[in-house]
Design brief:
The chain has 19 helices and 24 strands. The chain has 607 residues and is of the alpha/beta class. The chain binds 5-amino-5-deoxy-1-O-phosphono-D-mannitol.
């Protein structure tokens, strides 16, 4: 949550920061701001409530020569959404941006206010500014002033500090994402919450450890240098070449990133199977299988948690290994029963979700092996786990997760095949590859029939509420379908097990409620009975189910045919694509901001 970025060097620091912010806007868009130092060591800052575009229009007449710049895009935690609470926070020649929460901000604020610091905002972040400026006033140099200020903060945070006096930028983090980037010529350097913000401006990406100070300065031979909190040089960082391309950050001909990402799914399914069966991935799967877990504890948040439920079914059905799936925010505080010999499996697109990271930490404390199914290579989760199965989804920019869900579930399914020993046999590998390729074909088929789903979306988007229902393997995708609709169309939707509605929620059914009923071949008759119960109470029925079943067709107000033949195990993923498109088009008819829905951030780095 919140995106932070900084750039020092002659290559258009302000434009680079604004470009970085536009890529980090998925992390929050309540407000945006920048501060920069010019060639006369003067500090300038601008900040504005609302999306980045509001800030950009303020900057049109800026004419100074910019030497270094920092920027922020906000997802509000402390203090309402207004200009004053927007970052950067500035005092004298110092300006800071912050991502995270300073847990002891109230007591620090009282102390600093009593010493005479006049706070301008209601944020916790300004406390850090007050600490740094107070340290400088007391005669400390820049680096110790930031380091000592950081030591006094509790909680997970990343800070970027611009010092206009010295034209230097310092960044530091604890439990929050922060990377640094170097321009090949050593002329320019950047810091940011995500390597994605640095595509095009940095060729080498550094991943500093927690509590490592990253200094961007022209006063040293190297424009980037790393220090421990005591000021000694630090080696606690990793580096790699930037591998992302600018092309991946483009919407192409699609109106929204979400739609582009939905359409990428068949291709990604095909690539995934290639990597894990024919490429380097098979060894990794076999290595993880050799752990022979007694039990999996799957922990994740939001869409990733629903993918976890799908994976639980794959593993329990195929391997008969018990799997518990829990929301990471609950797992971490529930004092769960964890034993050595059990494996923690963490699912995440970003690899930066605070609760998921904490759940992983808890498993490590309990001496368990930890495995991630993750999209972002080099993310904190990736670095913290013993092994990682990359889902190879490419950058996911739409805040509503789509392709990551499919790739997470498919990667988990491959893990279950590996545990079963199926990757040892060429014949079995071929059967698996055929299933994945059939899934890709079926998704292609849904995409080709998008107009049918668009038509249904047009008919139903104005109803009062939506129940997505499904049984067994379709229950997780009912939950995911409802989440997708809520987050992008801003309508009330719930995912329910088909058999559970009559235990309470059926009281809500009337002619203004829609039931999007997922009907698979398993338990077909029972699911039809459940739909009848809704229909009898005048609920509107949208059936997602097999073709030519008159029992189903007769009770549906709207029907989308699905072909389950030969695809039973992977069919939840296929059904889910229909739900994704329904949500997308309902949101489009509602006219919401699909790629950046209100109140959300893609990477939830606070608990
Ligand atoms: O990056 P992660 O997969 O760990 O994120 C977890 C959730 O925050 C995420 O899936 C969220 O629910 C999405 N907005 C859903 O579309």
């Amino acid at each position: 949550m919140c995106g932070i970025v900084g750039h020092l060097g002659p290559n258009n620091p302000m434009d680079t920061v604004l470009e970085g912010l536009s890529r980090l806007e998925y992390r929050g868009y309540d407000s945006a701001g920048i501060a920069y130092v010019d060639d006369k060591s003067e500090l300038h800052f601008y900040k504005k409530k609302g999306k980045l575009a509001n800030l950009v229009s303020l900057l049109e007449k800026e004419k100074h020569t910019v030497v270094g710049c920092i920027g922020h895009t906000r997802w509000a935690t402390h203090g309402e959404v207004n200009d004053a609470n927007s970052h950067p926070h500035t005092h004298g020649k110092i300006s800071i941006v912050h991502n995270g929460i300073i847990e002891n901000a109230p007591s620090l604020k009282n102390e600093l206010a009593s010493e005479g610091f006049e706070f301008q905002s209601d944020t916790d972040s300004e406390v850090f500014l007050a600490l740094v400026t107070s340290n400088l006033k007391n005669g400390m140099d820049f680096l110790p002033a930031v380091s000592e200020a950081f030591k006094r903060t509790d909680g997970n945070s990343a800070f970027v500090v611009l010092n206009a006096e010295t034209s230097e930028i310092l960044a530091i983090k604890r439990g929050a994402p922060l990377v640094a980037g170097l321009h090949e010529a050593n002329s320019d350097a950047s810091v940011s919450s995500d390597p994605y913000a640095l595509v095009g401006s940095s060729e080498t990406i550094y991943f500093p450890g927690d509590e490592v100070l990253v200094l961007l300065s022209k006063r040293h031979n190297d424009i980037i240098s790393f220090y421990e909190l005591d000021g000694t040089e630090s080696k606690n960082y990793k580096s790699k070449k930037q591998e992302m391309s600018l092309e991946a950050t483009d919407k192409g001909d699609f109106e929204h990133f979400m739609l582009k990402e939905i359409y990428e799914q068949p291709g990604l399914t095909r690539d995934l199977i290639q990597f894990y069966l024919a490429g380097d991935g098979a060894d990794l799967l076999n290595k993880v299988s050799a752990w022979k877990p007694e039990k999996f504890h799957i922990s994740a948040c939001g869409t990733a948690a629903y993918a976890g439920m799908v994976i639980r079914d794959f593993i329990e059905q195929r391997n008969r290994i018990p799997c518990a799936v829990e929301l990471a925010s609950e797992f971490r505080y529930r004092n769960p029963l964890l034993r050595e010999g059990e494996v923690g499996l963490f699912i995440s697109q970003s690899g930066e979700t605070a609760d998921t990271l904490a759940a992983q930490g808890l498993c490590v404390e309990n001496k368990m092996k930890t495995l991630s199914i993750v999209n972002v290579e080099g993310s904190t989760l990736y670095r913290d786990c013993d092994e990682n199965l990359l889902i190879r989804a490419g950058i996911e920019i739409g805040v509503a997760s789509t392709k990551a869900f499919t790739q997470q579930a498919l990667t988990g399914c491959l893990l279950s095949y590996a545990i079963a020993g199926d990757l040892e046999s060429e014949e079995k590998k071929k059967t698996i590859a055929d299933k994945y390729s059939l899934l890709a074909e079926r998704i292609d088929d849904i995409l080709a029939r998008v107009d049918e789903l668009k038509k249904i979306a047009e008919e139903i988007y104005n109803y009062n509420g939506f129940f997505f229902t499904g049984r067994g393997q379709y229950f997780p995708v009912a939950l995911e379908g409802a989440l997708k609709l809520k987050e992008i169309a801003y309508v009330h939707a719930e995912g329910y097990a088909s058999g559970e509605l009559k235990h309470g929620p059926i009281a809500l059914i009337d002619d203004q409620m829609v039931n999007i009923a997922i009907v698979g071949p398993a338990l077909f008759d029972k699911t039809i009975s459940n739909i009848q119960e809704i229909k009898a109470r005048r609920g509107v029925i949208v059936g997602l189910g097999p073709k030519g079943e008159s029992d189903l067709d007769d009770i549906c107000d709207f029907k989308f045919d699905l072909n389950f033949d030969g695809l039973e195990e992977l069919s939840p993923l296929y059904v889910n694509v229909a739900n994704q498109l329904l949500a997308y088009y309902m949101a489009k008819f509602k006219g919401t901001d699909i790629d950046k829905p209100r109140n959300l951030a893609k990477s939830v780095t606070v608990e």
